[in-house]
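Onboarding guide, step 5: your first structure request.
Type a short instruction followed by the sequence, for example:

Predict the 3D structure of this protein.
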Amino acid sequence: MSTDSISTELRLQELDDILGRDTDLTQFEILIFQLNSKDENDRSRAESLFSLAKSSRLDSLLLALSRLLSSSLPDLQAKAALHISGIVRSFSLSFSSPFSSICLNEPETTLYTLKSALLSAFENVLLNNVSITHNPYDYELFQAISHFHAINNVSSTHEQFTLYVNNLFQAISNFQATGHWPELLPFLLECMKEGTLLQEKTLLAFRSLAQNRKGETALIPHSNTFLEIFLECLGNSPSNDVKIAALGTLISFVLFVPSWNDPSTFDYLLPLMMKTLTEALNSGSESMTVDSLQLLIILAWARPMVYERRLKKVLRLMLKITVDDSLEVGIRHLAIEFLMTLVRSAPSMISKEPQFIKRLFDELMYILFDIEVVDERHAALIAIPEIALGCKKVMLENLEEVVPKVLESVKDSHHCVRLAAINAINQLCERFWPEFLDQYHEIVIITLVEIFNDSSIPELQVRAPVSI
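The system replies with structure tokens like these:
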């Protein structure tokens, strides 16, 4: 027997000793934690054993991970759910045949136990009276975020629980995508009938299912049921958490589920989606307002035409938010970001509303020079070139007003505003070539040379020659 064969045999014996303990999971828990160890030797050993388990002891590995879902340690639960999710997803993506028939020695027993453990964990989450944050819209990005948190200490109990729930929902979603869990969706639909606490978590589970690129097709036959769910939750739920969960899940359906991107569907839904925002504003709930705006921005970027049929009302509401001095600066910035997102993602649609463009432009000019809040001036300087990109005609008509004020901002007392002003000059020059240089060549060069000669802020010195 070769040295490599002996080494593998010894490692398998060590692995069997770790995985074969039905009641004492201490050694396996240590192995899971060592996968993220800062000690290179411990981490290397753990990674080697874990890789060997996936290739040679997958049944035992999945069963051990399923038992960790009932651990009293949220961090350990999160790691177990993350590994289950990754294993199930990797095999469902790697093979055309059902992964159970290829990877598992006892597929019926292993899959039944794993489903039972996931379902039990999900039921415990439903009964936990804690709201969670769950806003990932790109699967790979979400996995990267989950991995980052998995290898760093998450101090807050709420953060640990949120991470665990997110990982658990991804594991459930990936399992459902394999086709081995047909009873899951009917169970989740029944949960929607059981009160607001269960509704919020169940909606977030639906969101994970919608975002799974191999599993979203299972949702299509239930489209009418989901439409009723969204109408009910957005229109009548007494819970703000349920409304935000419904809004986010609906947007996930629009982004990821075929047949949900038909604008006509939103004749019913868009008014309720916007109502979620207005109710948040009227109730003074800052967190709900921020969540609503962030979700609506995502929709504006990815599916701007959803807003087309009610565009005037949407624009009117967002402009109202931007000029409301009683609101927090961050909320007003989000409203501006929403408007700029529409300008970038659907310029032809926005160009049909010239009065809106002029009002937005006037508001940015007001923010830039009549308000002392640094963040607002900085945001306005970032937004002005975006208007130039989406609505060139409006900006050309107002260059005489814009350019002197942008150049004045280059001398602002705040570094971030000066940097944004230089970037704005760069972009205006690119987007209005050659008109920009024909009219403002001399004054722009003089201003940039002054910056270049000012050694007090090296970063601005570097940017100035680039602009020149």
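Each response can be followed by summary notes, for example: Residues 134-155 have pLDDT under 50 and may be disordered.
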